[in-house]
Specification:
Elements: E1 3-4, H1 5-9, E2 18-19, E3 21-23, E4 33-36, H2 49-54, E5 59-63, E6 73-76, H3 79-91, E7 97-102, H4 107-120, E8 125-129, E9 132-137, E10 140-146, H5 155-167, E11 172-176, H6 179-183, E12 194-197, H7 205-208, H8 211-225, E13 231-235, H9 241-250, E14 254-259, E15 265-273, E16 276-283, E17 286-292, H10 297-312, H11 317-323, E18 335-339, E19 345-349, H12 354-364, E20 372-376, H13 386-397, E21 400-403, H14 413-421, E22 428-429, H15 433-442, E23 449-453, E24 460-463, E25 466-469, H16 472-482
Helix pairs in contact: 3-5, 4-10, 12-13, 13-14, 15-16
The structure holds ligand UAG, adenosine-5'-triphosphate (ATP), 2,6-diaminopimelic acid and magnesium ion.
Length: about 475
């Protein structure tokens, strides 16, 4: 069915061309495309409008105050939102059940758990986020549809992917809502059935400027994107729970809280088990025992949020909680890699925030009878305030801390390491990540635990615009072998 500019922007227009595509990237424009000229963080999209028109753009959408071009030009107060809504209207179909999860840490884990739970319960389900788009279904092998990229993709990409998934029979979709993504309206076109919140701690101050602005961005998932009457699944153990609960209630949503004080799912107890942990959970007056094959208190929190989201969309509580017993952790999140030559266990994890690092070291301490060894760094062109906080945490919670490089991007790696080391008393500095991992593996003995943190699933080390192939899992395995002499 053809769609016109007026259909996509939901307004009467004097000139109403047929639209054949929607994009905010002039390089993707073809004949008949609606080009959204968005003011960006680096450049003004309007400067690419003449090129877009030359490439065939049928209309330009942009902010109030933008110049008028030689094709129908529509100016609106919130062009990013209009772009997202136009993209959704253009692509049309969405999986009937879409849920989103936000929070500083745990989004990828929760989205992946939701996908797995829905699939175990007989639905064709997908997750969209840091690890790309993955589809799972009953009796079908997991299918990776897109590679890892942005945590929350561009609005037109989200809309196109939702239509493709719906056409492929996917009925349940779990999306990661990053603060950048919510702030930039990348999810404004998604019709949500439920939304989840994991936690709120320091990250991304480079982009948001203050913790308040960062929190506002996350709150927007509830106060603007989640419809009235839908369910907000909130982590009762987060310090920010009250703020998120108040926002959800004010927005006419029901709150389903999970955690130690959860009203929807209450975590009564947690006991370590060799393969993970045993959870006792109360739900609607019933007590359930869950044999969870994942270690760490944070994973207990993540699985309860995922379970809450699935229950909020109408799944049976007992069946959802049973499905937790066969969950797999997301790649590179507390992923066990192997055993040291003289004993000990090595893990790769994606902790790249102070809270993430503290959480993963706390999670591993009970599994450590010898030394807890951590190899980590901090990303360049990202929140600089994280660096000393992560240094202090590693020095305090690990027995051996090795500070190395993690995607320096355009920054001087030595300067990043120095900012971490300033607060990491007793830590060792080894800039080369491979050498750092090898030095750590060489120290491993029986009872020790090594965690290589910060890069998880990532396949490259970004240095001065060049992505050098690098995989922490492969490097850690090689280091364990090299230490076996
Ligand atoms: C800071 C940030 O979030 N930037 C994102 C944003 O770019 P922007 O709008 O600021 O872009 P810009 O480069 O100033 O350009 C302005 C406009 O001109 C357009 N343009 C540009 C060049 C051209 O030739 N033609 C053209 O039309 C661009 O498409 C854009 O619409 O919108 C783009 C399209 O969606 C994103 O690709 C881009 O992500 C950059 C690459 C990025 O690194 N983002 C990271 C920080 C990010 O978004 N991370 C979050 C959080 C992860 C987490 O939770 O930890 C994520 O969701 O991944
Ligand atoms: N609930 C949690 N609380 C604290 N830390 C967590 C929690 N869940 C995960 N983490 C830590 O954060 C790391 C990243 O987890 P995950 O990828 O699920 O988070 P994310 O929010 O998707 O991250 P990103 O912002 O990069 O998308 C994990 O490897 C772990 O170290
Ligand atoms: N989504 C996060 C990932 C950080 C991963 C870490 N390896 C780094 O490069 O800082 C970000 O873009 O801030
Ligand atoms: Mg993620």
């Amino acid at each position: 069915m053809t769609k016109t500019l007026s259909d996509l922007l939901q307004r009467d227009l004097a000139e109403n061309p047929v639209i054949t595509g929607v994009t905010a990237d002039s390089r993707k424009v073809g004949p008949g495309t609606l080009f959204a000229a968005l003011p960006g963080t680096k450049v003004d999209g309007a400067s690419f409008a003449p090129g877009a028109i030359a490439a065939g753009a049928a209309a330009v959408l942009g902010p109030v105050g933008m110049e008028t071009f030689s094709v129908p030009t529509v100016k609106v107060e919130d062009p990013r939102r209009a772009y997202a809504l136009a993209s959704a209207a253009f692509w049309g179909r969405q999986p009937p059940v879409c849920i989103a999860v936000t929070g500083t840490n745990g989004k990828t884990s929760v989205a992946g758990f939701c996908r797995q739970i829905f699939a175990r319960l007989g639905h064709k389900a997908a997750s969209m986020g840091t690890l790309g788009v993955v589809v799972s279904g009953p009796g079908v092998a997991d299918q990776q549809l897109t590679p890892p990229g942005l945590t929350t993709p561009d609005a037109a990409d989200v809309a196109e992917m939702m239509a493709r998934l719906a056409a492929d029979g996917v009925t349940h979709l779990a999306v990661e809502a990053s603060s950048h993504g919510v702030d930039q309206r990348r999810l404004d076109g998604v019709t949500l059935s439920a939304a989840g919140f994991t936690n709120f701690t320091q990250d991304h101050l480079d982009y948001h400027g203050s913790m308040e602005a960062y929190r506002e961005a996350k709150l927007r998932l509830f106060d603007t994107l989640l419809p009235r009457g839908a369910t907000a699944v909130l982590n009762s153990d987060s310090e920010a729970f009250g703020v998120f609960a108040a926002s959800a209630v004010t927005s006419g949503q029901s709150v389903f809280s999970v955690g130690d004080d959860g009203q929807g799912l209450k975590l009564v107890s947690r006991a370590l088990a060799p393969h993970g942990q045993i959870l006792t959970v109360e739900a609607a007056g019933q007590t359930y025992t869950i044999d969870l094959p994942l270690a760490g208190g944070f994973q207990a929190s993540n699985v309860l949020i995922a379970a809450g989201l699935c229950i909020a969309t109408g799944e049976d509580t007992a069946a959802v909680l049973k499905a937790l017993e066969s969950l797999e952790g997301a790649a590179g999140r507390l992923q066990r890699v192997g055993r040291g030559a003289r004993g000990g266990e090595a893990y790769v994890d994606y902790a790249h925030t102070p809270d993430g690092l503290e959480t993963v070291l706390d999670a591993l301490r009970p599994h450590t009878t010898g030394k807890l060894i951590v190899v980590f760094g901090a990303g360049g062109d990202r929140d600089r305030g994280k660096r000393p906080l992560m240094g202090e945490i590693a020095a305090r919670l690990a027995d051996v801390a090795i500070v190395t490089d993690d995607n320096p991007r355009s920054e001087d790696p030595a300067t990043i390491r120095a900012a971490i080391l300033e607060a990491a008393l007793g830590a060792t500095e080894i800039g080369d990540r491979r050498a750092a991992i090898r030095a750590a593996a060489a120290q491993m003995a029986e009872g020790d635990v090594l965690v290589v943190a910060g890069k998880g699933h990532e396949q490259g080390q970004l240095v001065a615009g060049v992505n050098h192939p690098f995989d922490d899992v492969t490097e850690t395995l090689a280091a364990l072998e090299a230490a076996d002499v």
